[in-house]
């Protein structure tokens, strides 16, 4: 009875320990998901097609109302409206074409063909011309929407001319949302260029060699060997939302101390022989005073965004700067996720500027990401039941010389263990010839 009671107590202790481990894992998983949700709440997502859906719904309801009120004049009204909407941009395109042909044909188009480059650039594309031609033909064949046919043509030309005038004066110019959507869709933002420059001119060159640099550093700094965890072997790229970067991390947080530099990496670049690239190692102290070493630095292109917002000639205010920082983060994250050279060698840390009152906010953010990297694998499903080896089950297969089986089989080792390498001392046997063993029935 004493042995069985001890086994039960030990089993209860193991179950309690397993529950504690899984509760700790669930807590870490919840913390990680909360951080991801907070981060997603800051980063703007690409715009979708909801405006198109609303526009199609409004058009369908309007056409349905016209069909219900006066179905006999439906085609005339639709043709006339389409003709107004296409003739206006065409007239405005002709105004733009006059400027381009007189003053910019050589400097901007390098003498390239009129039809292939200049007309599409002015909005005189084939789709617009085709829509206007079909609408004009439909209006000619259909019943005029107004009483007198002359009134239709007067309204048509007057509306088109006034559209071209208001468009040229900027009254009908694109909204900020449209400009932002065009710039993001065509990758024309300042943030897109800075992110690609940061990747192609720096990260893609240094990140593939980061592991070797850290290994060389650890070999020459044996005293710091225990402080390097798995999460410390990546480059921590700090991206503050306000783009205000300090050149020394210890100036931002007293819990961060500069330790040393990694070995220099020399690369021939753009005519400069042996251009030096280096990373700095910092020691970050936690609440208990324990040091955690890591390689961290700010994203250098953010200095460009910050100084642009300080120059009046750039036309770049604080709201635009914040938006560009978020786009820079999103673009750089997308670039690095698709880069085989940089995979698993970096960590982007977005720093919210709402916690500037905390003097140790930077060290806390770095430590939180380091701990997340250390425990980035979570058990999402309950562990499988560990099969216990029952002595009676293997008694029949035991050799005669096997020792007698004791009654403490409750303490048997679980069958699931860490994988080990097994080597066979037997000589390799040749592969057997294939043998046909299929039965054929006629």
Automatic annotation (TrEMBL):
Every STING transmembrane domain range: 76-187
Where would you find the membrane-spanning parts of this chain?
53-69, 75-97, 118-141
Q: Which biological process terms from the Gene Ontology are attached to this UniProt entry?
A: activation of innate immune response; autophagosome assembly; defense response to virus; innate immune response; positive regulation of macroautophagy; positive regulation of type I interferon production; reticulophagy
Give residue spans, biased composition: Basic and acidic residues: 8-26, 405-416, 429-442
InterPro entries according to UniProt: STING, STING_C_chordates, STING_C_sf, STING_LBD, STING_TM
Q: What is its main location?
A: cytoplasm
Coiled-coil spans are: none
Region Disordered, residue ranges? 1-31, 384-442
Gene3D superfamilies named in the record: 1.20.5.5200, Stimulator of interferon genes protein
In the record, which residues are listed under signal peptide? none
Query: One Pfam family of this protein, by short name?
Result: STING_TM
Q: Name one GO cellular component term.
A: Golgi membrane
Stated membrane topology is: Multi-pass membrane protein
- Name its cellular compartments: Cytoplasm, Perinuclear region; Cytoplasmic vesicle, Autophagosome membrane; Endoplasmic reticulum membrane; Endoplasmic reticulum-Golgi intermediate compartment membrane
The catalytic activity, as recorded, is:
H(+)(in) = H(+)(out)
Q: Which terms are listed as keywords in the entry? A: Endoplasmic reticulum, Membrane, Nucleotide-binding, Transmembrane, Transmembrane helix
Q: Where is the STING ligand-binding domain?
A: 189-374
Which Gene Ontology molecular-function terms are recorded? 2',3'-cyclic GMP-AMP binding; cyclic-di-GMP binding
Family from the record: Belongs to the STING family.
What is the official name of this protein in its record?
Stimulator of interferon genes protein
């Amino acid at each position: 009875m004493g042995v069985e009671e001890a086994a039960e107590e030990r089993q209860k202790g193991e179950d309690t320990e397993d529950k504690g481990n899984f509760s700790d894992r669930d807590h870490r998983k919840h913390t990680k998901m909360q951080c991801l949700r907070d981060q997603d709440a800051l980063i703007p997502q690409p715009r979708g097609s909801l405006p198109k859906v609303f526009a199609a719904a409004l058009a369908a309801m309007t056409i349905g109302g016209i069909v219900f009120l006066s179905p006999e004049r439906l085609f005339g009204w639709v043709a006339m409206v389409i003709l107004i909407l296409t003739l206006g941009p065409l007239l405005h395109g002709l105004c733009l074409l006059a400027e381009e042909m007189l003053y910019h044909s050589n400097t901007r188009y390098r003498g390239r063909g009129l039809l292939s480059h200049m007309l599409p650039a002015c909005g005189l594309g084939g789709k617009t011309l085709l829509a206007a031609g079909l609408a004009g033909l439909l209006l000619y064949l259909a019943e005029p929407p107004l009483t007198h046919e002359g009134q239709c043509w007067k309204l048509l030309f007057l509306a088109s001319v006034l559209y071209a005038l208001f468009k040229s004066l900027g009254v009908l110019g694109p909204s900020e949302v449209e400009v932002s959507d065009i710039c993001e869709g065509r990758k024309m933002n300042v943030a897109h260029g800075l992110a690609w420059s940061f990747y192609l001119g720096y990260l893609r060159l240094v990140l593939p060699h980061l592991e070797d640099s850290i290994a060389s550093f650890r070999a020459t700094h044996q005293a710091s060997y225990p402080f390097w965890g798995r999460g410390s072997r990546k480059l921590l790229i700090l991206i503050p939302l306000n783009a205000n970067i300090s050149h020394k991390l210890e100036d931002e947080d007293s819990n961060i101390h500069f330790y040393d530099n990694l070995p220099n990496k020399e690369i021939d670049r753009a005519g400069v022989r042996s251009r030096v690239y280096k990373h700095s190692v910092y020691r970050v102290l936690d609440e208990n005073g324990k040091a955690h070493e890591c390689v961290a630095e700010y994203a250098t292109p953010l200095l460009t965004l910050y100084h642009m917002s300080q120059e009046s000639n750039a036309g770049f205010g604080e709201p635009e700067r914040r938006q560009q920082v978020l786009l820079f983060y999103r673009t750089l994250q997308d670039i690095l996720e698709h880069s085989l050279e940089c995979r698993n060698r970096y960590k982007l840390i977005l720093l919210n500027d709402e916690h500037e009152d905390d003097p140790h906010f930077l060290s806390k953010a770095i430590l939180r990401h380091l701990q997340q990297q250390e425990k980035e694998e979570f058990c999402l499903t309950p562990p499988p039941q560990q099969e216990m080896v029952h002595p009676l089950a293997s008694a029949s297969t035991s050799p005669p010389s096997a020792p007698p089986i004791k009654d403490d089989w409750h303490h048997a080792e679980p069958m699931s263990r860490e994988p080990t390498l097994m080597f066979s001392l037997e000589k390799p046997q040749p592969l057997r010839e294939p043998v046909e063993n299929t039965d054929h029935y006629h």
